[in-house]
Amino acid sequence: MPDTKIVYHKQFLTDYPTASVEQPERIRVIHQELSSHGYEFVTPEPALEADILLVHKPRLFESEKRDIDRFNTALLSAGGAIMTAEIALEETPAFGLIRPPGHHASPDSNWGFCFFNNSAIAVEKMIVEKKIKRAVILDIDLHFGDGTDNFFSNRDDVTVVNIQSDNALIALAEVKDGLERAAPFDIICVSAGFDKYIKDWGGTFTTDDYKTIGKIVKESADKFANGRRFALLEGGYYIPDLGINALNLIEGME
Hints:
The chain is α/β, with parallel strands linked by helices. It has one domain (5-253): Arginase, Chain A (3-Layer(aba) Sandwich). It has helices at residues 25-36, 49-52, 58-63, 68-89, 118-128, 146-152, 168-182, 207-224, 239-253; strands at 5-7, 40-42, 94-96, 135-139, 158-162, 188-192, 229-233. The chain has a 7-stranded parallel beta sheet with strand order 2-1-3-7-6-4-5, with helices on both faces. Helix 1 packs across helix 9 (239-253), helix 4 packs across helix 5 and helix 7 (168-182) runs parallel beside helix 8. The chain is globular. The model has no long low-confidence stretch (mean pLDDT 98).
């Protein structure tokens, strides 16, 4: 059985109101791919209101109650991120197969199919609970993770590294250099968007490139963070290859 634990709940297949591209099928195809390779799935609990309010303003939290299916799934996605981080703290690599994504959710606003900022909530909770002192969030999504960056701006305990080059070789170098520059840290969180894929909107990374990113993350985690690393699903909309791309990132992180 592979080393990485996968955090997943069937509720992530809920067809809540959102953009048509951010569809349940994204979760289904990754789940099928990982299942066929023998991965272990663990089931999360929803985040508490107090967890969400570590990052978001009460006004945003209350506004998301307008659609209860979406709200409940977003709470579970944030809870899944927290569980994924907790697994990684035990020096076991983990992947949060969660939905909705989160990196466009700022403290008092959100957009881009995101409602609560999963990675920010997971990392901030570890810091507040004094389980870690420093973290790096590596965002490999096509789109700049503005929500994550907004929350952690002017903080010296969390470094957010957004990979923005549309040249694959340069982007891979940015991954390695960004992690090196962020050191020292106690854990790596990857905001794992797959829409930078060569056949997706970004037209940049190959499937092999995702495995390379995973290997860089593992090497950096082993060097600086006692091997503690985890990834959380963000974007990625080319359904035919989404599962194999997620698998390659995970295999690289192992």
